Amino acid sequence: MNSPADFTEEDDALRFSGALVLARLGNLPQRLETLAKQPRAIDLSGIERIDTVGAWLIHRLARDSDADVTGANEDAKRLIDQVSQLDKPLQMRPDPTPPFIRVLAQMGAATVSAFRMLYGLLGFFGAILISCWDIIRDPKRFRGNAIARQFEVVGVDALGIIGLMSFLIGIVIAQQGAVQLRQFGAEVFTINLIGRITLRELGVLMTAIMVAGRSGSAFAAQLGSMKLAEEVDAMRTIGVSPIEALVIPRVMATVIMMPLLGFYAALVAIIGGGLFCWISLDIPLITFFQRIREVVPITDLWVGLLKAPVFGLIIAMAGCFQGMQVEGNAEEVGLRTTAAVVQGIFLVIVLDAFFAVFFSSIGWV
Amino acid sequence: MSDTDGEIVISVRGLRNAFGEQVIHDELDLDVHRGEILGVVGGSGTGKSVLMRSIIGLQHPVAGEVHVFGESMIGRDDTEATNVRKRWGVLFQGGALFSTLTVAENVEVPLREYYPELHQQLLDEIASYKIMMSGLPAEAAPKFPSELSGGMKKRAGLARSLALDPELLFLDEPTAGLDPIGAAAFDELTKNLKETLGLTVFLITHDLDTLHAICDRVAVLADRKVIAVGTIPELLALDHPWIQEYFNGPRGRAALGAKR
């Protein structure tokens, strides 16, 4: 309906025609920048329509070449007038920092935030202990329902996925173990491998990773969004301690559920390994379980079961702590949730290394 | 642009929206004329935002027809709808700025998307005057949305919705959450922009002062449809309980008194 914007040069004058609107500009701005000589007059009598972008181009041209605008109708005059009042070059982006300074600043910020986080985590642990003490002194404040609910979410709901994972891990250990040990004619030791590694290490460790991914992240996201919606603040003003109402049930549920889930995971892994041995190595299940009883010392079970609640504490604390740190916007909930999982798994593995050394040195090998 | 007075920019016919069992709109009709500011009012949950989302194609109605600039907006593919989208700007409630871009870059996004041939310098200049036009201070341009107050976010969102020089502007509760001074300034801004740029404005609001100050006509949403459209005196003459309650309640009278 509109012809494209165009102009012709006549002596010192530029005569514009067509629709001087954004959609019909085409290469007009580029052509205006490469004019052979500065115009002395700009004639707008031939244009069909104009919008603010057209008005801006005319204004800029008139400003830079000191030309007079003639033949503009009411609309054009008003728009040009309007944009000329708004002519002020703005900064588009924040000043860039030099890369070297930026790297230094990032390193500094990361160091500070790491220490601040450790300090915060310590404080958070303290707050949990104080709340526990308060609950012990006044058992009426113990929130049985909330804990039972978390038992279900953290423990019962996780049985399926943890079972499947452990079953497959049991099979993988048996299969890889059998392949390697066959080279020494020691296939039968596959049973030792399965029994000891699942009860001592993998059952609990893999469960911890799964719980960190399932529940640690959920804690952070739940508490984070509650923090954003000011639910936590509302609780405080009513006089309910958020630590008691939100954190303690989650931490306790995870601490109690972790050993149970870890034991369950080890058991399912042993069953998976046993089935593999039966099908692939022709070791009957009866023999398999008999061997397990003979070669796995009871201390292996204790090693696994003692680590589990500590891992649970770490995971739940990291999740709740990160959730309670959320401030500002929804984006932070996502960041904090990620941080909760990464932190949880990292701390679990660090502690696992310490446990390994500790249990070896007290003779539980 | 007043030469096209009476031309219908948005036409909604027999619109029906439902979420599951819950019917939001049924047999809803509405016309918006070129060059007017149409205020849309209604109680909470009457589907004002849903109506806007149906018009701009974010919500698929169960039945009915929506025409914008004479083109049907229902069941069109994206490439066809793009030509209509270029001609309108939308300001969402919270501003809906892209959080990873600065205010100036936010304003440049629609320009870049539709007119990639524009040079960076011209883009920056256009973004500059749009930002100034929306009443933001010059320092706001290089800031990120997270550094802005609620009112500034709305102004930045307005600057972005004006980026393509639209003919039609959708504003979803532009003054909600602003202090009275900021709200009055925003009303003034909307009116000025409408007058200088010849905009048609579809304005959802709860703000009685806004209705009195800038709206040419007001559409009232109730009982799942538009029960009345007209100037405020015309609406006051009607005998509908909700309309009477709305405009003649204590707050309505206060706003009316302020107008006089």
Write the layout of secondary structure elements.
The complex is a heterodimer of chains A (365) and B (260).
Chain A lengths: L5 E5 L2 E8 L7 H6 L7 E10 L1 H14 L2 E3 L3 H12 L13 H39 L6 H12 L3 H24 L7 H39 L2 H8 L3 H40 L3 H11 L2 H28 L4 H32 L4
Parallel strand pairs in A: 2-3, 3-4
Antiparallel strand pairs in A: 1-2
Chain B lengths: L7 E12 L2 E12 L3 E6 L5 H8 L7 E6 L2 E2 L5 H8 L2 E4 L11 H12 L5 H14 L16 H12 L6 E5 L7 H18 L2 E5 L3 H7 L2 E6 L2 E6 L1 H5 L4 H8 L1 H10 L1
Parallel strand pairs in B: 3-8, 3-9, 6-7, 7-8
Antiparallel strand pairs in B: 1-2, 1-4, 4-5, 9-10
Helix pairs in contact in B: 3-4, 3-5, 4-5, 6-7, 7-10, 9-10
Order of helices and strands of chain B: EEEHEEHEHHHEHEHEEHHH
Helix content of chain B: 25-40%
The outline of chain A comes out as elongated
**What value does the Rg of chain B take, in angstroms?**
18 Å
Labels describing this entry:
A: 365 residues, alpha/beta, Transcription Regulator spoIIAA, 7% strand, elongated, B: 260 residues, Rossmann fold, four-stranded antiparallel β-sheet, 10 helices, globular
Note down, in words, how this protein is organized.
The complex is a heterodimer of chains A (365) and B (260). The mean pLDDT of chain A is 91. Chain A has 365 residues and is of the alpha/beta class. In chain A, helix 6 packs antiparallel against helix 7 (190-228) and helix 6 runs parallel beside helix 9 (242-281). Chain A starts with 5 loop residues before the first strand and ends with a helix. Chain A folds into 2 domains: 6-85, STAS domain (Transcription Regulator spoIIAA); 114-361, no CATH class. Chain A is built from 12 helices and 4 strands; from the N terminus they run E-E-H-E-H-E-H-H-H-H-H-H-H-H-H-H. Chain A is elongated and about 105 Å long. In chain B, the strands form 2 sheets. Chain B has a 6-stranded mixed sheet. Chain B has a 4-stranded antiparallel sheet with strand order 2-1-4-5, with helices on one face. Chain B is built from 10 helices and 10 strands. The longest helix of chain B has 18 residues, at 180-197. Chain B folds into 2 domains: 1-86 and 167-174 and 184-260, Rossmann fold; 88-165, no CATH class. Chain B is globular. Chain B is 39% helix and 25% strand. In chain B, helix 3 (103-114) runs parallel beside helix 5 (150-161), helix 6 (180-197) runs parallel beside helix 7 and helix 9 crosses helix 10 (250-259). By secondary structure, chain B is of the alpha/beta class. The chains are: A alpha/beta (365), B alpha/beta (260). The interface between A and B is medium-sized, with 31 and 33 residues.
